[in-house]
Design brief:
heterodimer, A: alpha+beta, Ubiquitin-like (UB roll), 3 helices, B: Methylamine Dehydrogenase, Chain H, 0% helix
């Protein structure tokens, strides 16, 4: 099982508490994890990635195993610890100031 | 319930204010969608318990929420607003071509007859329609494909389509307004659109009477006289008696003809309300006095309404979608400020009382009269 930690606003939108656990078939990548997440929680479509281009929204970041994976290829394998479920995949709303 | 439901969109969530028909005691419910910008909420005229809300954040983008029980519970519905085909370009602030990019929904306009049909006015400017209760949205692309569209430029707040007026007797006739392109009208349900800006004069564009390029802030009408339109432009309050084909200025004795919202009395089609604001850059009431101005003559002659409103040290703004009326007798008038106050008048503007004083900055107000 892949463990996903969502920011509070998206947990509220998806009506979940705590971490989300998902089965991901095939290679565990950003794309396959986010595809599975959006399939389970369709209300999250468009909030993490652009509907059309599939690109990460600018103020959304992906962390795991103390690394910022935001700029990695969406098809690159995620760390083994994420694939085995020993570490969560973090979706982060970037600290961006503002009001 | 016999009374009023006021739908308030703010910079940090939505609030629902309810009262009985006396409009003296109010229940404040919220925040809904706390922390998100709620650009607009509006109820279906065909089913007042069906509400739509535009929820947006700089982090997570656009969400559309729908309620089937008057705002007690909500469910997220479709948030995909994809332009039809290759969207092309409009003019950027520096005059260069800029690709059309969806940013957010500014205005939701439910159908007058079908609760599952609603229109969305978006930035970058276009109009979308849903006929399945908001689950899916399809662009009405002919507006964006108008010959003039490559010359449209954003206003300071972005290139937003902020006004959608549905005709009560002619479902094919829709009037929309875009900052800063101007007013457009279709008479065939969106297949063709024509600019409706003759008579507007805008000194801040190279040709002040150009066909397009006018920074229209808001347009409204009375439902009994749908082809008489009232407009608050960046400068000038305007009136059209021919569904937008021509406009004349009715600013008259207003202390400043700049402002954002404009509303019409529910029972008196020639009674109009505006909130004059100082500009170009201050965007607060003249002299620190918050005054609604009312014309009972369809424009030109205006009276200041001040009773109950702060008359010193007031430096808030009232945004384009942040004023509305109920249809009780006497007509209620409501507006929200960027300081978080929502003011209500239960006597057509003669006197005002704050329903709430300390909400986040108010972006929009809509009112439902519940029978």
């Amino acid at each position: 099982m892949i463990r996903i930690h969502l920011p509070a606003h998206l947990r509220t939108l998806a009506r979940v508490e705590g971490e989300v656990s998902l089965d991901v078939r095939g290679q565990v990548t950003q794309r396959s994890v986010l595809d599975a997440l959006e399939a389970r929680y369709p209300m999250l479509r468009g909030t993490l990635r652009d509907h059309v281009t599939g690109q990460r929204r600018p103020f959304v970041r992906f962390f795991a195993c103390e690394q910022d994976l935001s700029h990695e290829s969406p098809d690159a394998p995620l760390p083994e610890a994420v694939a085995t479920g020993s570490e969560p995949f973090f979706v982060i709303g970037a600290i961006a100031g503002g009001c | 319930m016999n009374g009023v439901r006021v739908l308030v969109g703010t910079r940090k969530g939505a609030f629902i204010l309810t009262s009985d028909a006396k409009r003296k005691r109010w229940n404040v419910n919220g925040p809904h969608f706390a922390g998100w910008e709620i650009f607009h909420l509006k109820g279906s005229p065909a089913d007042p318990d069906r509400l739509y809300a535009s929820q947006w954040s700089g982090w997570f983008g656009q969400v559309i929420q729908r309620s089937n029980d008057g705002g007690k519970t909500w469910e997220p519905v479709g948030n995909q607003f994809t332009y039809d085909g290759v969207p092309g370009t409009h003019q950027w602030y520096d005059g260069t071509p800029h690709p059309w990019e969806f940013k957010r929904v500014w205005h939701l306009e439910p159908s007058l007859t079908d609760p599952d049909t609603a229109y969305a006015g978006v930035e970058d400017a276009s109009i979308f329609r849903s006929s399945d209760g908001g689950k899916t949205w399809q662009e009405i692309p002919e507006l964006r494909r108008h010959d003039s569209a490559p010359r449209w430029q954003p206003g300071a707040g972005g290139m937003c389509l902020h006004t959608i007026l549905l005709h009560p007797d002619d479902p094919g006739r829709i009037v929309i307004a875009i900052s800063a392109a101007g007013v457009f009208r279709t008479d065939d349900a969106g297949k063709t659109w024509r600019p409706m800006n003759r008579g507007l004069r805008s000194e801040h564009i190279p040709d002040p009477t150009a066909e397009i390029g006018h920074c229209v802030h808001s347009v409204t009408r009375h439902p009994s006289r749908p082809d008489v339109l009232f407009m608050q432009k960046h400068w000038d309050v305007m009136r059209s008696d021919d569904a937008g084909a021509s406009w004349r200025e009715i600013s008259g004795n207003l202390p400043t003809d700049f402002g954002f919202p404009i509303s019409v009395h529910a029972h008196e089609p020639d009674t109009v309300y505006v909130v004059p604001i100082k500009s170009d850059s201050e965007h607060y009431p003249p002299d620190g006095k918050l005054r609604v101005y009312r014309s009972r003559t369809g424009g030109d002659e205006w009276e200041a309404l001040t009773k109950g409103l702060p008359q010193r040290n007031c430096y808030v703004n009232v945004l384009r979608d942040a004023m509305a009326v109920d249809s009780l007798d006497a007509c209620g008038v409501y507006f929200g400020t960027t300081g978080g106050q929502v003011y209500a008048s239960a006597d057509a503007g003669d006197s005002w009382t704050p329903i709430v004083r300390d909400l986040p900055a108010v972006l929009s107000i809509e009112v439902q009269t519940l029978q």
